[in-house]
């Protein structure tokens, strides 16, 4: 499944770490005639800087509540880990890039039956997705 995510991310920064609060939504795309995950997502977490330079790598952990819409519907909760790099750290305008892995803790099930093009019903099971994502951002 593939999805695009648009998210607002607020970061409260200290010299050694930052706390993060974000909210956004997924824009599902269709793959193999099935809808991808879509809905609303939040993030609450913290990250620790590994250096105090202009280009500073960081690692972090967090939790992510979410609400699914589309083929899969319902509420969910995931835990996540991330690694990233903050660029221009001494500047008031910054750029960051990060990789994140989210592991859902609550299974989600499709709300509708899935049928193949020949009319036969496909067996669809509840899933416990692991999500890998790449994000870039600009901070002010």
Count the DSSP helices: 0
Which percent range fits the helix content? under 10%
Q: What class, by secondary structure content?
A: mainly beta
Low-confidence stretches: none
The largest β sheet comes out as:
8 strands, antiparallel
> What is the CA-CA span between the terminal residues?
33 Å
Mean pLDDT: 85
Overall strand count:
12
Task: Indicate the topology.
Layout: E1 3-13, E2 17-28, E3 30-31, E4 34-35, E5 38-49, E6 56-69, E7 72-87, E8 94-104, E9 109-110, E10 114-115, E11 121-122, E12 130-139
Antiparallel strand pairs: 1-2, 2-5, 3-4, 5-6, 6-7, 7-8, 7-9, 8-12, 10-11
Description:
It is a single chain. The chain is mainly beta. β7 and β8 (94-104) form a beta hairpin. Strands 1, 2, 5, 6, 7, 8, 9 and 12 form an 8-stranded antiparallel β-sheet that branches. Strands 3-4 form a two-stranded antiparallel sheet. The protein has a two-stranded antiparallel sheet with strand order 10-11. Helix content is 0%, strand content 69%. It is elongated, with a radius of gyration of 18 Å.
Q: What tags apply to this protein structure?
A:
single chain; mainly beta; elongated; two-stranded antiparallel sheet; 8-stranded antiparallel β-sheet; 140 residues
